[in-house]
Design goal:
This protein has helices at residues 2-19, 24-30, 47-54, 61-88, 112-121, 153-157, 160-165, 217-226, 252-263, 296-304, 386-403, 409-419, 448-454; strands spanning 36-42, 96-98, 104-110, 126-131, 134-136, 143-145, 174-179, 201-202, 238-243, 249-251, 281-284, 308-312, 333-338, 362-365, 369-372, 380-383. The chain is of the alpha/beta class. A seven-stranded parallel sheet has the order 8-9-7-11-12-13-14, sandwiched between helices. It has a four-stranded antiparallel sheet with strand order 2-3-1-4. Strands 6-16-15 form a three-stranded antiparallel sheet.
Length: 455
């Protein structure tokens, strides 16, 4: 009798454990929502494969990118196969996406029954079933102009023109952003878009074949990265873009999709992956919350395959300890915002970071920055935010890589840090230290020309 009771209790305990991977917060969300985008995280991580690749020797960075892509893809496909088959019998094909850059599966518009069923059925493989994160881009009030009559003050401050005069404008280098999209026909951007057929665009939401931007944020940031007409740091660079944010909100499944597309781009329909087409830097003017590590595997993979992960620090200032994620995470190059008088913008998020203290790493012009508008092919807009600051750094990586194609991420970053302008501090920054780097400016304000000279 006691043996029978023990057996029943063991079975019941097993059922309880089988339900454990469902995040309790997910059930709370389902109390007010019938359908939610969920993320299924598997227990086995891709980080071990990345660690192995990092100690191997390759003939070129492109060879390493291809190896990382093929190895991680084979691993995650094997891990996810039975779960994907099960989900395929319960959902439509466009709802489910298995990722290779992280060992996770997204289901768009799932209900609670499906979340609990997959968690119970595959409890031995699944770490957790949770709601997808939602990040955001800041969209301040916009002032519209026609073609600017002079260089953007930000371009002048970082001395990009001097770098161009020396022959370095990012020519021949591919650079990318994950944002709200880009207006590809804009006069400042149309001549250096790599093209739909050359791995220039990816839309994880709806699979649109060509770049689009219904918000304006992404067109503005790309203009600062690679626009002509005096608005971009690297007007000679070739740009590509991923739609991580369909509006001002950015769904996790899309940001994960953009993360792996950046590491090894595909055509717009998701076919014919070609890791040789990866950019040298990825601009990310989005984020939210603090101390969140969910994007770290993407950041680590980008670094492993030679893609600089540039993130805006956030617009949560002026209090201390306000750096947002993923910018506050290890490996992310976090950028604060400055004004035309080289003061720190009031909104710019300050350090220390919750995970690593030194945030931001560097600052750049971000208050009242003029760049391309999505409203017309000759329209321009003035926006403010760390979203406007970080594209200066993304563009700077393209300029530095033109001068030295074998430059590593750390070498490029250190060239920027060691030559950054250090304005007088009007008051002790967060943490009280007046030394450099500090928790306001990082190492200082970007100077592209001096960084080029340091390479």
């Amino acid at each position: 009798m006691f043996k029978l009771i023990a057996t029943v209790l063991a079975i019941q305990a097993g059922l309880i454990m089988a339900s454990a991977p469902v995040d309790p917060a997910l059930k709370t969300k389902f109390a007010t929502n019938s359908e939610i985008d969920i993320i299924i995280e598997l227990k086995e991580s891709t980080s071990t494969l990345l660690d192995k690749a990092n100690v191997m020797k390759f003939e070129s960075m492109n060879a390493k990118r291809t190896y990382v892509y093929q190895t991680m893809k084979a691993f995650t496909e094997a891990q996810q196969a039975d779960i994907l088959a099960f989900l395929g019998s319960r959902t439509t094909s466009n709802q489910v996406k298995g990722f290779w850059i992280v060992n996770s599966i997204s289901v768009r518009g799932a209900d609670l029954k499906l979340a609990e069923e997959v968690a119970a059925r595959f409890a031995d493989k699944i770490q957790v079933v949770r709601a997808g994160h939602v990040a955001s881009v800041e969209t301040p009030v916009q002032e519209y102009f026609h073609r600017p009559s002079a260089r953007s003050w930000g371009i002048e401050t970082v001395e990009a023109e001097a770098a161009w005069a020396a022959g370095y404008d990012g020519r021949g280098v591919r650079v990318s952003n994950t944002d709200t999209g880009v207006r590809p026909t804009h006069e400042a951007l149309r001549d250096n878009y790599v093209g739909d057929n050359d791995y220039g665009w990816f839309d994880p939401y709806n699979g649109s074949p060509s770049p689009r931007d219904n918000n304006g944020h992404g067109t503005h940031t790309m203009g600062t990265i690679a626009g002509s007409q005096g608005i971009g740091v690297a007007p000679g660079a070739q740009w590509m873009a991923c739609l991580g944010c369909s509006t001002s909100s950015c769904a996790e499944f899309a940001l994960l999709g953009c993360g792996e597309w950046t590491a090894c781009p595909t055509l717009a329909d998701g076919s014919n992956a070609n890791c040789d087409k990866a950019p040298v830097a990825s601009g990310n003017s989005w984020g939210g919350g603090q101390g969140n590590s969910w994007y770290n595997n993407i950041i680590n993979t980008w670094r492993s395959v030679g893609i600089a992960p540039v993130f805006s620090a956030g617009n949560s200032g002026s209090s201390c300890g306000t750096a947002n994620s993923p910018a506050d995470q290890p490996g992310a190059i976090s950028v604060g915002s400055t004004t035309s008088t080289n003061a720190l913008s009031s909104f710019s998020s300050r350090g220390p970071g919750r995970t690593v203290p030194q945030k931001p790493e560097i600052s750049a012009p971000g208050s009242s920055i003029i760049s391309a508008s999505h409203n017309s092919d000759i329209g321009y807009a003035t926006l403010s935010g760390t979203s406007m600051a970080s594209p200066h750094v993304t563009g700077a990586f393209a300029v530095l890589k033109q001068k030295n194609p074998s430059l590593t991420i750390d070498q490029g970053a250190n060239a920027m840090y060691s030559t950054a302008m250090q304005p007088p501090l009007s008051s002790p920054p967060c943490g009280g230290s007046t030394l450099w780097p500090n928790y306001h400016y990082g190492y200082g304000i970007l100077n592209v020309f001096q960084a080029v000279n340091a390479v």
